[in-house]
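Field reference: sequence -> structure
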Amino acid sequence: MTFFEHLTELRKRIINSLYAIGIGAFIGVYLSKYFIEWINKPVLKALADAHLDPKLIYTHPAGGLNLVITVGVYLGIALASPVVLYQIWLFVAPALYKHERGAVTGFMFSTVFLFLSGIAFGYFITLPYFLRFMINPGSFFKLQHEVVPMISVNEYFDLILLTLLCIGLMFELPVLIFFLSLFGIVTPKFLLKNFRYAILVIAIGAAIAAPPDALSMLVFMAPMVGLYFLGVLVSAVVVKRRERRIGAPAEAR
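Structure field:
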């Protein structure tokens, strides 16, 4: 394919992805009321545990409508993600060898699984610690009881959806390592040699994302360390297959 043919193909894949996101957003707006109720549960529980009124507010006349549209767009992106990934695959696949296509196909499915695992970890594990600290920080900063939260539902959703998205992306670490290994940028030896630096980065991320106590940081760090070692294993498999192919005749594309 020429350069302009590549651009035409890329344009086609982007348009198809936007169509999928638009349809997903339409469905997401319809389903948003159920999702809003589901994602409100952690903060309402945290408020009740802190002996506060378990209610959220909005401070703009269109706040409720903005919330429904925002949640619908997020849901639309999530619902359209398999189609978007498939469009990416259709654009990239012609440039890969036959054996690489099979490997990448498996990891495309792994991408969705790991992302959803990150969302689940964030919702069920991270959010309870995070919200309990944010709503009742008195044990750390000695705030007086007269200072109580009045939480806007729009700001809460912006914060929580961004947090869940970041955690979901962080769970894609093995997939990132896979592609870096596929193109020869990292190796298992390199990853193990620089393990201490990876732990340092993970610890800094945990200190930023988790409440400032040791237990919360460990809860956040444990899966990330496990995912790093999973990435090392994935890298070892990729490198081993590459070394095996060096002595074998090149396969047809």
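Note: The chain has a mean pLDDT of 83.
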